[in-house]
Write a structure and sequence with these properties.
Chain lengths: ~180, ~180
């Protein structure tokens, strides 16, 4: 898939050529070039989120649910490294065009994590004094950062293998008790 | 200070005008426009890091050192929100021009955090079974993400007030013991 810069440098004609269709065909489906980016983003986000939700629903307790979510997240971005590049670039550049989509996708993710944390508090496995709205952002931020480190290191190691170490840091923290 | 896009859209003449000097003067100090960005980045990074190091050195135990580092980090970015925008954009876009500088700055930060964690292990306040190279990236990622959330929320709340909640999540984690 296109990295953002490449996408912005290419013309609709080039995109049509890559897709193996006529220029006019592109305009049957998309208003303009920006619309291609927005619609692609929405399409992939929905796909990926359906898979996140499925993983979480079939896991048992809250720790397992968090582990399944993080693992599937890392697996999906590892499988589609170009999506990871596009997502990170869009998220951290705060582009007006796609701001609302990014906000919506983040909200979906934060909602899932929030549900898991509340369930954990009910079960007694998560701290009752957690400030959920901060803790869920903390978790998303740490996972995003693990993906970004992997991208910057040239995608050279198994990203999904970071699941257990991350879950361990989330749950137990770095402090010795 | 310039946000990246504005910087790239402006000419050397415009930069000279903003700085109140003649175009030729700019070329006495900088090879070209990109060189201005790189040199500015290096200059600010050195300033900010000297202040990080000072804060950490004057704090007592490892938990206090970590708290001082995170607080100063959040304070510096809050004080200079445009620097925060430039830093986040540069870091997450993986621009070749400034890749080495970003790597060097991250390494300086990770080195400080690594030292603090090792000291904590010696003191017995941090877990002995921590995988330091992961834990330090985890901490930088979580702080970066707190800064990014603040930027995206329109810089509307006191960023430095996130220090204690972040330190609490780092040290104690989300799990109930």
């Amino acid at each position: 898939m296109f990295a953002r810069q490449g996408f912005y440098q290419s013309t609709v004609s080039q995109i049509a050529r890559e897709a193996g269709v006529a220029d006019g065909t592109i305009y049957l489906y998309f208003k303009n070039k920006d619309d291609i980016l927005v619609q692609f983003f929405n399409f992939r986000a929905k796909q990926v989120f359906a898979s996140f939700r499925q993983e979480v629903d079939k896991s048992g307790n809250s720790t397992d649910k968090l582990r399944s979510l993080v693992r599937r997240h890392l697996e999906e971005f590892q499988r589609d490294g170009d999506m990871a590049v596009v997502y990170q670039a869009l998220t951290y550049q705060n582009i007006d065009l796609i701001k609302d989509q990014i906000k919506e996708v983040s909200k979906m993710y934060l909602d899932i994590v929030g549900e898991i944390l509340e369930k954990g508090q009910e079960e007694g496995t998560m701290r009752k004094d957690l400030y959920i709205s901060l803790a869920k952002r903390f978790i998303l931020g740490a996972v995003d950062s693990a993906i970004n480190n992997w991208l910057r290191a040239g995608r050279k190691y198994d990203l999904a293998s970071m699941t257990e170490p991350l879950i361990d840091l989330f749950i137990r923290g770095i402090g010795n008790r």
